[in-house]
Design brief:
There is one protein chain. The protein is an alpha/beta fold. The protein folds into 4 domains: about 1-130, no CATH class; about 185-335 and about 510-520, 3-Layer(aba) Sandwich (Rossmann fold), CATH 3.40.50.2300; about 350-510, 3-Layer(aba) Sandwich (Rossmann fold); about 560-600, no CATH class. Strands 9-8-10-11-12-13 form a 6-stranded parallel beta sheet, sandwiched between helices. A 5-stranded parallel beta sheet has the order 15-14-16-17-18, with helices on both faces. A 4-stranded parallel beta sheet has the order 6-5-4-7, covered by helices on one side. Helix 12 links the parallel strand 11 and strand 12 (about 310). Helix 17 packs across helix 20. The protein is globular and about 85 Å long. The model has no long low-confidence stretch (mean pLDDT about 90).
Length: about 600
């Protein structure tokens, strides 16, 4: 009892409210047992949190591993309480100018820790963080320091949801920081469904103020497709594979021209594992947004170890599969809409006649759609089918538009806006609806952003995004004719639901939201690189303020444009603009020397 009293007294000197709350907590969450080395150890729900042999040595090993990554001026946030051996070891290992905070998800566990061992003077410098995840994230964000998150895994398992919520709130806080401009190389595919999404991502990143270099491989699509005409499958695969390797090397050469802060690839971007590993050795940050069903396209299995960050639109088994394949960091990032393109349109009577119908579907002729859609023929309402890859679907030829030609985004938007009820059936290779309905396709968000009414096959994630008042779903395709007839007879209710879905997409589900989320993940993981830029530490004003005691350097930076990010190459370029006969100051010569060194060492090839 004296240990608890002494610890609470020490805690109350800086955290009076927390000390009072812990005093009246009941405890009993941890089972305290002596370790072989003689100091207390603990179990929770039968699972050891600290070593049963030597908790102090275990904690020191953990601290030694993580302290090397911590930087001066950072706020290091530790998840996992237990008996706090790891926190003590880390605090003693870190420099004084590195702040340390500890998340407190469970006051009873913290009570047990304070009753088990004396925390001594080291604990007085710790920022203890109880409360709701959003409140904790707000507290940390207001501190204004770079945040680095560490996890003592054995002590976090029982409160995994709490720690996940804190990380999400922190990521969102970082994503809202718009003080800095990143340089992002966006690597697109040769062709396919992720090609237009690459354009949406580019616009979103530019809207957020970042500089985007689009490495557009679609300019090579005709040559790639021409190789597909080779009849010998071995020759065809060999030639297309070699072309993909050349484009991967071309990407490398493009990056060497102006090295970015982040290389962001979209699904099916022609990047080989060899090139990705080379970029990693050169300290480039790489990420992939895999906007494909991981079960159908499996090339990710070979590339998983190559990217530093993976983002996928499926959860659960998908995340586990990527980790097992070697992905270092994999995060969930669902699809979205681009409201600049996916939006309501005023159509002429001619366009409404040409593109409109009671019911329509836009998409490729996957096996399940070929099997399901004939039941929509010979109904008392009109049905139009748009899209390509419908060869051989003779039953549907009477409703297939433009003779099965691929339609562009502009035509697609006209169809969405002119149609009373848009049908949205996710693709699968089976005969019916997708039995593993664990993702929501882009079309769901795009239709909603257009203010277009849709009937969508039910997805396990659908209600994460849209309520029953915003979108109608069905679990059996046999329901569709009845739902169509019902909603055709209720145009006002149909429009109200479509309007509600559009408002919701604009508030939460655009590509701007997704790119904020993606950069927030990376910024939280890389506080001294991406995070520092997002916080605005590379902007002219921030740099001038930081070098206020260095007059020569301050004068150089003041000559740079305000409100912009400034790098060494920018300062060097301004110095060189003075001409070859200009008399340069000592600090200007040093900047030029450093920039020459940078140029010589950036060679990627």
């Amino acid at each position: 009892m004296n240990i608890l009293h002494d610890n609470l007294t020490r805690l109350a000197s800086r955290h009076q409210d927390l000390a009072a709350a812990v005093k009246y907590a009941v405890g009993g969450t941890l089972t305290i047992e002596p370790s072989r080395s003689g100091v207390p150890s603990a179990r929770r729900s039968g699972r050891w949190i600290h070593s049963a042999y030597d908790p102090l040595r275990e904690a020191q090993t953990w601290a030694d591993t993580h302290a090397a990554s911590c930087r001066p001026g950072e706020m290091v946030v530790v998840a996992g309480v237990g008996l706090l051996y790891h926190v003590e070891a880390l605090r003693r290992k870190l420099a004084p100018d590195v702040s340390l905070a500890v998340l407190i998800p469970n006051l009873d566990e913290f009570h047990d820790a304070l009753a088990a061992r004396s925390l001594e003077a080291w604990s007085e410098s710790i920022l203890w963080l109880p409360g709701a995840p959003a409140e904790i994230a707000e507290t940390l964000t207001k501190i204004g320091r770079p945040i680095r998150c560490l996890s003592y895994t054995p002590a976090t398992l029982a409160d995994a949801e709490f720690h996940r919520a804190v990380e999400d709130a922190l990521r969102q806080g970082i994503a809202r920081q718009t003080g800095g401009q990143l340089t992002i190389a966006l690597v697109g595919p040769i062709y396919g469904g992720s090609l237009p999404i690459t354009g949406y991502v580019k616009r979103a990143l530019e809207t957020l103020g970042h500089k985007v270099q689009w490495i557009d491989h679609s300019v090579h699509a005709a040559s790639y497709e021409a190789m597909g005409s080779l009849k010998d499958q071995r020759n065809r695969q060999m030639m297309q594979g070699r072309m993909a390797e050349v484009m991967s090397q071309w990407t490398l050469a493009s990056l060497a021209e102006s090295p970015p802060d982040l290389v962001l690839s979209m699904a099916q971007a022609p990047m080989t594992l060899q090139v990705l590993e080379h970029l990693r050795k050169k300290k480039f940050l790489t990420a992939m947004w895999f906007v494909e069903n991981y079960r159908h396209l499996t090339y990710w299995q070979q590339l998983a170890p190559g990217y530093e960050f993976w983002f996928v639109f499926q959860q659960g088994a998908c995340l586990d599969a990527f980790r097992q394949a070697g992905a270092r960091q994999v995060n969930y990032l669902p699809m979205a809409a681009d409201p600049d393109l996916h939006c309501p349109m005023s159509l002429s009577e001619e366009d409404r006649r040409r593109f409109g119908s009671d019911v329509s579907f836009v998409g490729a002729g996957y096996a399940n759609r070929r099997r399901l859609f004939p039941s929509l023929l010979h109904q008392p309402w009109s049905f139009k089918l748009w899209g390509n890859e419908w060869d051989g679907a003779e039953e549907l030829r009477s409703v297939l538009q433009l003779d099965g030609a691929r339609i562009d985004t502009a035509t697609c938007m006209k169809v969405f806006n002119a149609t009373a009820i848009n049908l949205n059936v996710h693709s699968t290779t089976g005969a019916g609806l997708d039995p593993q309905a664990d993702f929501v396709n882009p079309r769901t968000f795009e239709l909603a952003a257009c203010g277009a009414f849709q009937l969508v096959d039910h997805r396990s994630q659908l209600r994460q995004f849209f309520t029953e008042q915003q979108m109608v779903s069905f679990q059996d395709f046999g329901e569709v004719p009845g739902l169509v007839q019902q909603w055709l007879n209720e145009p006002a209710a149909r429009q109200a639901m479509a309007n509600a879905a559009r408002a919701h997409v604009l508030s939460e589900h655009t590509y701007v939201h997704r790119m904020r989320d993606l950069l927030g993940h990376i910024g939280l993981s890389q506080p001294d690189r991406v995070g520092s830029v997002l916080r605005g530490e590379r902007q002219q004003e921030a740099l001038v303020k930081r070098c206020a005691d260095d007059r020569p350097l301050e004068s150089l930076l003041k000559d740079c444009p305000s409100g912009q990010r400034i790098e060494l190459k920018d300062v060097a370029a301004r110095i060189r603009s003075k001409g070859p006969t200009a008399t340069l100051k000592r600090e200007e010569l040093m900047v030029l020397m450093l920039d020459e060194y940078r140029s010589e060492t950036r060679d990627l090839l």
